[in-house]
Each structure stands twice: as C-alpha cells, then as structure tokens.
Amino acid sequence: xxxxxxxxxxxxxxxALTPVQAIAASDATLKGAKRKVLSDRSACDVELLCAGAFxxxxxxxxxxxxxxxxxxxxxxxxxLLGLPVVLDSNGEENxxxxxxxxxxxxxxAALTVTSKYKPFKEKECKEVxxxxxxxxxxxRMVFSRGEYYLGGTLNFxxxxxxxxVAPTPTEIRASLPENGPVVGFQCRNPIHKAxxxxxxxxxxxxxxxxxxxxxxxxxxxxxxxxDIDGETRILTYEALMKEIGTxxxxxxxxxxxxxxxAGPREAIQHMIVRRSFGCTHFVIGRxxxxxxxxxxxxxxxxxxxxxxxxxxxxxxLGIGTIESLxxxxxxxxxxxTADAAEAKGLKKKKLSGTEFRRRMRAxxxxxxxxAFPQVVEVLRPHMKTE
Length: 386
Known about the structure:
386 residues; Sulfate adenylyltransferase; 2 domains; 6-stranded mixed sheet; 12 helices; globular
C-alpha cells in the first residue's frame, strides 16, 4: 500500500547548511601541515560534509556528538542524525593540528582537529546496526577502522576528481523548478522494470499539476562487498536514462555516498541527505538499506522497519515518505500490486535474482518485462566475469 506523509515545510528547507568555507591549497595555514590519506568511504564523507549534504552537521563528530548520535540518533542539540559521521585515525594526529586530507593524491579538504577519542566500537555497532556480528558488513567496516576517531572543522579545498559528475546540494536545488514536489529515489543497484514502475507510481501520486520532479539519486560510493562495482552501476544508470529520459520530469544525479547497510537508521540518513538536495518526498522501499547474514542469509532487519522509522520522523525532518508498492508482473495487466493480482487471480511471472544472474552469465535472453535491454547489455560483461 502506498502511503504519503506530507512534510510540514514545502520546498524551502530553512535548515540547509551552506557549503563549508573554502581554502586555497596554497594557503599559508597549510604550509607544513600533516597529510592524511583518505579511504574511499571517508572521501565520500568529506565531499558531502563540505557540500552541506549531512545537514545538520558539516563536520566530523566530536566525542560528545558521537556518543549522542550512537545512543539516541540525535546530536546534543536534539537534531536527528541517522548515522555517526566519523573519521578514524591510527593516532598520528592530535588536537590542534591542521591536517590536509588527501584522496588519490589530491588535496580535497583541511581538517582542524578539535577532538580525538577512542570510540566504543561494540556499542556503536550494537546501537547503530543492531548487532555486533561480523556477519554484518558495517560491523566488519567499523572494526577495520583505526583506534581513534577525529572530530573537527573542515575547510573545502577541491572536489575529488572522479569519473562521474556529482552535483552538490546547492547546484541541485538551484536547478529544480521553483514550485512543485520533488520525489527522491534511492538506489545502489541497477534499475530494472519493477523499480521503474515503483518510482513512476510515487511520482504520479504527488504530481497533481504536471509540476513534480523525480530525482533518481543513486549512491555510487562503496557499498557491501558483493554489490556491483560503482563504475558498472554508473554505466547502467546512463543506459537507463537513454531509455526513459524523454519524460522531462525525470532527473538523474550521482551521489558520492558510502552505504552502511544500516536499515532503519540509514533510511533516516537518506532522508536527511535528500532533504538537503531539495526533495520534499522520499521513496522508502521494503527493507531499505537492509543486509543479510553472510552465513545463513537471514535478514538483519524486518521488511517494514525502515518504513516505520521513516514515517515516525517524517514530520520532524520536513520530508514526506512514499512507501514503495509491492509490484508483480502479470501477463494480463503488466505491473500491478501483488494484492490486486491475487484478488483478480492473474497469472504472475517471476524471475529470481539467481536465475537472472545465471541467464546473464550464460548469454541467454532476459525478458523485457523484467529489465531494460540497454541496461542488460551493460551488465552482461560484468556478470560473465563475476
């Protein structure tokens, strides 16, 4: 069932943070400063913090903020933040240091360290991800971090040089129509026909006068280990837009965000980020940002936990939620809700993920009702070498 929680505020988001102050790479302040090489994940965090995408924060969390977000999902000022945004260290940096943050040989930001502390990693995992089991990909990620976390203020130097363009929240908001709802759609995997019908139904549910916009906003940073690599995912989105881009209400922009697979709490983080990009509504899928045990494939979160968490905080965040429909493909009527198909006794067609991958590796045909042909062609080489 599709439900809609309308936000209190309309398009303008008064709490949107402006980008952090910029500093030139040649600035005298940086002369002789320490250098710190960032991981792929940390580089994504730095880029989004500097752009104001994690509003209400634009800095790595200090010890008090970290403890508060871990325990309550709120900063000390009571503002919601789904996940702690932290920078780990092995101890080379100290309070008072100015540290130049580098990614792939490029200086991208300067951090003035105001807090250095040892995190409680077990508690962080239990509270944020609901488990301390290393079967969860984020638990493995947390325990692979350095011994310390660093808090402090950031100064922007330059956006990381990537093989894709990632517009900032300011740029996206400036490009949107002045009025009308904006629906955000999160994905981290290639989009197939069922996903397309989910987000089109969501768009049409709020588009009363033809002035609505759908922002397809895929995360293209690191995800869990067995996901399709970011470069291939980008190619599938480009292929998708060639097939569906004639609808002027649709836009696609890449988000350099690293997935934590944190289920309900990550759904809140996604809403916060998309709110910063100007979205008034956000599509919440079943088991959004969920993960399965690497041993027994059991889900870590309930199918509707993320939707319930999102609805609970929708009004406070000022962004409406649209629950994704459970769609199935039928021979008689195409994609409709599973409940409607059952009530009408229609003949459903299914293609499991396992069978899809087998057919792709074998070079066999993929039915057009399941996937877009151009997306399939992008994926075939990847699947054959998987």
